[in-house]
Design a protein that fits this description.
Elements: H1 9-22, E1 26-32, E2 40-51, E3 56-65, H2 67-93, E4 99-101, E5 107-110, H3 112-118
Antiparallel strand pairs: 1-2, 2-3, 4-5
């Protein structure tokens, strides 16, 4: 029986082989199939350990079910997006120049007052 979801199998094998070749700990996120369910999303961490007696390498692994965590993240995205939109509406109404950059320094928001002060236009 194949435990790894068929849609994830090739990526899991590729990442595992890379970890073996580079002799690095292995980490991946994939779906596993259990009973009648389509798949449960898990994080897998594994580390190689030499078995000197049998002259082989074995892996000790840790699995964590992250299905509920992922569902919680998905359910939070819309309210956060709505809240961000509401903040931008308020920011457009104040007579103060405001802008927001992302982590890379790119401007992701600039309010109307800032555009007026700088005599520029900003398209979202």
């Amino acid at each position: 029986m194949q435990v790894i979801h068929p849609d994830d199998f090739a990526v899991v094998i590729q990442s595992f082989n890379h970890a073996v070749q580079t002799q690095q700990p292995w980490r991946c996120t994939c779906r596993i199939v259990r009973s009648e369910q389509d798949g449960v999303r898990v994080n897998i961490w594994a580390i190689a350990q030499a078995n000197v007696v049998e002259d082989q390498i074995v892996y000790s692994a840790y699995l964590q079910d992250v299905s509920e965590l992922q569902q919680a993240q998905i359910s939070c995205e819309k309210p956060l997006s709505d809240r961000q939109h509401n903040v931008e509406i308020i920011a457009d109404a104040v007579p103060v120049g405001l802008y927001r950059n992302d982590a890379d320094g790119n401007c992701v928001y600039i309010n109307q007052e800032t555009c007026k002060i700088l005599d520029i236009t900003f398209e979202k």
